[in-house]
Structure formats: structure tokens, C-alpha cells
Amino acid sequence: MVSEHSDATNAETAALALKILVAGGFGVGKTTLVGAVSEIRPLRTEELLSEAGQSVDDTDGVDEKVTTTVAMDFGRITIRSGLSLYLFGTPGQDRFWFLWDELSQGALGAVVLADTRRLEDCFPAVDYFEHRRIPFVVAVNCFVGARSYGGDEVSRALDLDQGTPVVLCDARDRDSGKEVLIRLVEYAGRMHTARLLDSVG
């Protein structure tokens, strides 16, 4: 007879935790997205913007932003029974990019948040994940007052590889953020399976 303790141990063993990065330009909503979807109190490493950083941080279009992530954001969300995602929000400024290589180790994939008012700000993140063959989706954070664009238009503007998903979202809304993460997990799963089949074929 199998004990209840054995059942609990088997359930814990079967649980899968996947590492996901949330990247994008300065002020695009990475901290907001992680905080909105996380079922635990998110870890944040935000500091107040200083006068010293004004010469290097481009705040055009995000004038009301008063803090910035200096290391990472961290949160966790359970997608379904046995599947949890650990979310790591990356810092957006160039001077913190040395952290990206460390954060990307072991990641299943990434969400690249985009703001159509500052679309060029997500080019570095797109290039980073393409060059390292890390599957990613582009999530367009639909800011109030920003002109709306379709996924195909954003895909062409960013010159994305064919098949890279582009989804519209509201980083403040938990359900919207969760849908983005589900799309990423599905896409990354297909990409990793295809690469595995290629390697053995």
C-alpha cells in the first residue's frame, strides 16, 4: 500500500518549474507585468531615478517614471496544476546589461515587452534572444493614448523571424499577462521540441 507521504512526494517530484525572462526597454512595464501576475509578493530591486542618471536614461515618453530596476524583479505564477513559472524581470538600461547573461542561464524563453511609442527600445532585447536562440514572444503593452497597431505591423517593424508570436496585452491586468505567458510556454515548447527532433534526425 502506498502511503500518503509517498503520494505527496510523487506529486512534488512531478511538479515542473520553468524560468521565464521578462525583458524590454526602459519604462515599458516589466516590473508592472511581473507584479500583476505573481501569486507571491514580488521581489523588486527598484531605486529612485537620480540626477546622475539623467544623462544616460532616456525618459522621453515615460516622464512620470520615478524609479528603475537595478538588478531584477522576481515573481512566481502557477499556470496549472504541476506547472509553475518563475519570472525574472530584467533591467532595461544598457548599463545593467551585464546581468542579462546570468539571468538568461536555464531560461525556457522570454517575453519582450514593447511600447509602440518607443518601439526601437526593444530592438536590443529582440537581438539578444535571437542571437542566443532563446524562444521569445513580443508582447505589446497597450498604453492609454498610444496609437494601436496590429501584430503583423509590429512584427514587420521589428523584422522578427517568421513565426515569432506578437500579442497585445495590458501589463497591469493579471489575466492579460497570464495569456502572454501561456503563449510563450506553448511557443517555446514547440521550438525546443523541433530543435530536439532536428538534433536526432
Automatic annotation (TrEMBL):
Q: Which GO terms describe its molecular function?
A: GTP binding; hydrolase activity
Family matches, as SUPFAM superfamilies? P-loop containing nucleoside triphosphate hydrolases
Q: Which CDD domains match?
A: Ras_like_GTPase
What the entry lists under Pfam families is as follows: ATP_bind_1
Keyword Kinase appears in the UniProt entry = no
Keyword list, A-Z: GTP-binding, Hydrolase, Nucleotide-binding
Annotated family: Belongs to the GPN-loop GTPase family.
Question: This chain belongs to which protein, by name?
Answer: ATP/GTP-binding protein
- Which organism is this protein's natural source? Streptomyces montanus
